[in-house]
Amino acid sequence: MTSKSPAISKINPVVVSGIQPSGTLHMGNYFGAIRQHIEFHDRHEAYFFIVNYHALTTLQDPKALSRYSTEVALDYLALGFDPDKANLFLQSDVPEVTELAWIFFTLTPVSQLEKGVSFKDKVAQGLGSNAG
User: Fold this and answer.
1) 48 has which bridge partners?
2) Are 17 and 53 in contact (CB under 8 A)?
3) Which residues, 6+ apart, have CB-to-CB distance to 129 below 8 Å?
4) What is the pTM of this model?
5) Share of the chain above pLDDT 70, in %
6) d(CA 36, CA 33)
7) Alpha-carbon torsion 12, 18, 24, 25, what sign?
8) pLDDT in tens, 58-109
């Protein structure tokens, strides 16, 4: 008597990633992220977002942030992103982002924030750092 192992279904991962609109995109952005995002959106369920809240840690000019956010979306479309295959959205369009941030910041002691790699890097460089 032989036993057959149950069929294992192939799991199709969900891809979630973002890109910061803190300036004009360059070739490093293309090779480091966008190229893979375009490839992934053809093969997987995918959610890509423009992390405009994260950009506030280094860019506080609202007009520039708006312009860079629009340019990121246009760059994705120009490079072959198909909105019928995947999702592209602004981080600020999801109210739960700020709700969760508020909860995390009220539960996280400053001593924990000071252990963060990004926080320590900015302090070491003499740059202003914040909880964001």
Assistant:
1) 17, 88
2) no
3) 118, 119, 122, 123
4) 0.77
5) 92
6) 5
7) negative
8) 899 999 999 999 999 999 999 999 999 999 999 999 999 999 999 988 998 8
Helix (H) or strand (E) holding 100: helix 95-107
Residues 6 or more apart whose CB falls under 8 angstroms from that of 81 comprise 37, 38, 41, 48, 88
* pLDDT of 119 above 90: no
Q: What's the Cα-to-Cα distance from 73 to each of 20, 34, 77, 109, rounded to whole Å?
A: 11, 11, 6, 36
**Three-state SS across 103-123?**
HHHHHCCHHHHCCCHHHHHHH
CA angle 67-73-74, nearest 5°?
85
Q: Which residue, 119, 117, 116, 48, is CA-closest to 82?
A: 48
- List phi, psi (to 5°) of 45: -65, 125
